[in-house]
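Go through this chain for my students:
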Amino acid sequence: MANGRDRQAGDTTPTPGGTPGTSTPERSGATLQLVLATLGFLVNFWAWALLGPLGPGIKERLDLSFAAQSLLVAVPVVVGSLGRIPVGALTDRYGARVVFPLVTIATIVPVLTLTTVSSYAALIVTGFFLGIGGTAFAVGVPLVSGWYPPARRGFAIGVFGIGMGGTAIANFTTVRLADAYGDKAPFLLVAAILAAYAVLSFLLLRDAPGRTRPAGSAWQRLSKVGRLTVTWQLCFLYAVGFGGFVAFSVYLPAYLRTTYDLSANDAAMRTAGFVVLAVLARPVGGWLSDRFHPVPVLVWCFAGVAAFAVVQAFEPALMPVATVALLGMALLLGAASGAVFALVGKVAPADQVGAVTGLVGAAGGLGGFVPPLIMGWVYGSQGSYAIGLMLLSDVALAAAVFTAVKMGGLARRAA
């Protein structure tokens, strides 16, 4: 590797087009591919998050319970999460140049369907297929990893993670577009943007030179990476980091409306601010991981999330305490998400990054699926979100301790 920091445990596999134990230089055209991958991640995540801002309004219109509303916004999350497993394996097999346009085209169908459905059952089914947009993450990470050497991979994947900002765009625009131009407007706009990106990616997206198609079936490759201990360690850490971000991004509008009696537009705008800060923090987490190591970055991020969650459990005044606590969690969860995938880029075998990304990404999405359901159930039975936030604090603290104790060896070997 280029330096001591890059010689992580298990990081002796060849990078695409390189030899074992060496770092390939950054390739010509890498910046363009990073921009295209980030753009694709953003527009697909925009589509993936469309139901979140509309959730409170749908709840009122259909007279849903808090649990039913939580399920509605959580279904795309879990489908997009589990779908990353096969999509990541398919990306290893066929390359992002083929898979990215296909995922984007498939996402257009449920987005357009949302212009015609109105019943709860139909929305659940449509939300299921809307989850396809969330699988774009498992396409972009192996693409970016192939174009960048290990010494810069953490930062590059962090920049790619800016595509999470699609959820912020959804929160900024969905309610406003629906109010100003009709209920169908946000869906028609997103469908048109997805179609444009599908064409753009087909014309310009390229897999890294020297990319090799892995041997064996998708199931064999998933079984192989599933036997790696570090895969499941990364799954747990990403379930807490990115899962926490996803949970807040889809449920925060309902939380703010219920706890602080905000309007739908005000709650959506504040949620968008939360998402933007988390998105901006993600490349910072990747850069810090390249500079020091992902392990200490993760320990501090998880410990900070635990502290802020305790503060928010007491439902402080929105200004300034709750705002500081929520934005603090956004900053730390975003940085933690970047740090986890900086670690993936360093320790995953080069020809299996897609499969590892699929499993880890699925864990992150599932980590975002469970909290909204718990929060809805807790509020429905207790009339308070305090228990749910204390559970978040406990899980984040456990993640900090686990990272420091179980994965600290990676940092020591790097040093």
User: Anything to note?
Assistant: The CA atoms of residues 2 and 45 lie 34 Å apart. The longest helix spans residues 229-260. The chain has a mean pLDDT of 81.
